Hints:
Blueprint: H1 4-11, H2 16-37, H3 39-42, E1 49-51, H4 56-63, H5 67-81, E2 90-92, E3 119-121, E4 126-128, H6 135-138, H7 147-174, H8 176-195, H9 200-227, H10 236-257, H11 261-269, H12 271-274, H13 286-291, H14 295-308, H15 332-336, H16 339-367, H17 373-382, H18 385-398, H19 401-420, H20 426-453, H21 457-488, H22 492-508, H23 523-527
Antiparallel strand pairs: 1-4, 2-3
Helix pairs in contact: 1-14, 2-9, 2-10, 7-8, 7-9, 7-21, 8-9, 8-11, 9-21, 10-17, 10-18, 16-20, 16-21, 16-22, 18-20, 19-20, 19-22, 20-21
Amino acid sequence: MPSFDEVLKEAGEFGRFQKRVFFLLCQTGVTFSFLFASVVFLGQAPGSYWCRIPGGAELSERCNWSLQEEENFTLLSLRLVNGSASGHCERLDISWDASTSCASPLAHSPNVSVGSPRLAACQGSWVYHQPHSSIVSEYNLVCGHSWMLDLSQAILNLGFLAGAFTLGYAADRYGRILIYLLSCLGDGICGIIVAFAPNFTVFLIFRFLQGVFAKGTWMTCYVIVTEIVGSSQRIIGIVIQIFFTLGIMILPGIAYLLPTWQGIQLAISLPNFLFLVYYWFVPESPRWLLTRKKGEKALKIMHDIAKHNGKYLSPHYSEITVSNAEVSNPSFLDLVRTPQMRRNTLILMYAWFTSALIYQGLVMRLGIVGGNLYLDFFISGAVELPAALLILVTIDRFGRRLPFAISNFVAGIACLITAFLPEDIPWLKTTVATLGRLGITIAFEIVYLVNSELYPTILRNFGVSLCSSLCDLGGIIAPFLLFRLAAVWLELPLIIFSILAVVCGILVMLLPETKGISLPETVEDVEQLSSPYGKCSKKRKHRDTNSYI
């Protein structure tokens, strides 16, 4: 019997059916990017805030003060005894009560004496000029609690990490579309709970769970798209990244129009419920059905694909079975048990980790420059658009491995040059750093494609999920690495980024080239892929086989 790819070629490798499914699933990239970068707007620092003296609210009401007048009395009193105090994180160690004078509230305060002030740390008594506009003002993530904002992003990345393992495994065992739909439902529900969380603990718990489900939607939709198109069309996985970038560019517009963090959170979460209608439009992956010995269902889907594409399958495709592909519950050992699988897995894990670490590090480095947050964020997303276009132009001509390696080398060299450029040429430093970001963005997008092409069908979703989990680990480490090393020397993080990128460029040259090669169905197929310098095995896609169908 012919291979699955030959059946798919007769049904249409990228016809009307695949284009519809592709467009529908690409919307997942937009919503995932919303959540991925949402902390920038959910956690905006309040423009101005000050610490209220105990009893200040009651005194303000009794004296008929406006909020501005209470602030003036509070900060004036503080600065009379300590001119360097800002009033953000400290207050006078006094209390105002019924005996306090409205005209001179410090007149009868025994703890106040010029020259020997007594100050106390602020404990939950902050007053914000824009209350509830961000999670910072909602949960008092300022002063000694400011590190909790970083924790909220780390928790989200931990959710991504957990989702990669749990839902990646579940999608290989129970089906792509089932896990995709359940993940969309969970993403939406958890997002709503986050918006109305009564305290920061509840916020963190459901932000973690939203990260778990969001990762399930993103990884599963990517695998579905990859598995329903022919080998010559798999670069459409790169186009999904364009929708991720579009989400990055749309997000500042949403944040600009919605003044509160709850509104932003709901706006980025509710669209997930719309994806539930995909139950009627997106079928299960026929490749996955074959590996689970569900040939009849796979055959029905293949006939539907052919019908929508205006094609007709030959009568001898009346039976589709799996004969030699062993079906088992995937585990990490399956990814490292054989030599080629082990090499691919370790290199891909490092590539994911490096791409995420450098990408997020460069984004944060370019973003801390002041100015208009909304405009700057939009421009930073627009910089990524040429990456996908460059990939689409080069990947079919030069293959996957060479652009993958060169993009890492470009990122590494650009980071190194930026580190040693003089500070008095800021435009040049920014330009070269932007070139580095473009390089690492290309590498980041190619690793998605290469990862899905180097694993067999029975392990593909689990393999992509597990390797990409290193991306989440890189995302957790990036802010700590950037800011701690920058405290030693501002450009030191760029030196580390440079080393990581160049090493990655060297390692990816050891991966096999997958241009024009059919997706492997079994571990044996992966082991037979050509080595970068060995005998080419592209003839595999032309041979007759009954290994899978």
